[in-house]
Amino acid sequence: MSAFASIAKIPELKRRILFTLLMLAVYRLGCQVPTPGVDPEALMAFFAQQRGTIFGLFDMFSGGALEKLSVFALGIMPYISASIIIELLKVVIPGLEKLYKEGEAGQKKIKQYTRYGTVVIAAIQGMGIAWGLESMTGGGGHMPVVMHPGWAFRLMTVLTLTSGTAFIMWLGEMITERGIGNGISLIIFAGIVARLPSAIIKTFELMGTGEIYPILMVLLIVAMVLVVGFIVFVERGQRRIQVQYARRVVGRRMMGGTTTHLPLKVNTSGVIPPIFASSLLMFPATIGSFIHLDWVKRVMEAISPGGLYHELFYVGLIIFFCYFYTAVTFNPVDVADNLKKWGGYVPGLRPGKPTSEYIDRILTRITLGGALYVSAVCVLPSVLIGKFNVPFYFGGTALLIVVGVAMDTMSQIESHLLTRHYEGFMKKRMSRVRR
Length: 435
Prior knowledge:
three-stranded antiparallel beta sheet, 2 domains, two-stranded antiparallel ribbon, 19 helices, mainly alpha, Preprotein translocase SecY subunit, globular
């Protein structure tokens, strides 16, 4: 509590937090502004039939804006897609990788390419949504979603949704620059947390009707606290490789001779693998909702959430994407070359190829542990709903995002407090460091 009280004593930190809260409030306000030409009742009736499809996944990341088809309906997903595409293209296009290594100037250029890609992806998705809305009906097929279909509606929808995504992207960059924390992550965080009050109210209503026993609710709260603690523990987990720097003469000064560590995170890939896995598994269900054939229905039932095949495919895809994304974003050869260039080496290993093979071997082992951890957290909602009849989702991609963003934001606030000589949130850890 003393750390929170110290925030008000630092004017710069207080301004940053207030600016962040103001920008998030603007984002949530924009999620309530509807896109012209759409019947909201018919759209709500349509989305009531789309639980467990890819529309439900996108609606979660947009904070319910897609379900209302607001001006922010696309959310920040086009920006995330563009960032992932640029990240993957760095592997196959040498020019992008060279640009990435040029420092701040290269980073600005890559960020500019990401913005252009965001606008293009948002325009394509906006046109796809406009075409799809014209064929959608709610209320058993009696309520058309679009009141006046045609090119005027399509162009208006593309312009509105693309402008909304560009504005969200600007909000995220402003939060990162002038606020506290990562702006894009905080926007996703706000969209997910916005659904928390309705889930709490629904839970208490079920407790009042006797569908949920109080003792079960107490056990669930205890389990939630333990799961969040477990996620924090693993997300902070690192495998530290000792690195020794040789002494060398630079001018008239002796440099080096120090020992440090190369930290390898247990969960290097973050929340990208469950997002990819969920999208791939939900895509057949989305297609199947528009195709009314017997064999399609059987396939949908086999891979429907909560079933054995769905969970097996889900875990398998998460493990695959954990290794794939880690291999794309972390290159042991580059790390070993940089250590060799700066005079660093792992004790007992020769610089160069032996060091890169050693790092790759350790990374492969800890990635398996991280993949199993992500799989367990993502399968948790199905277990709670199927076995304990819990009326809300707890776990999965949303929980990983919420806990991860909260940890990152708190660490940035703590760094501001410590630089102003105030006590941080992690008092025991800092006292050990001082000793």
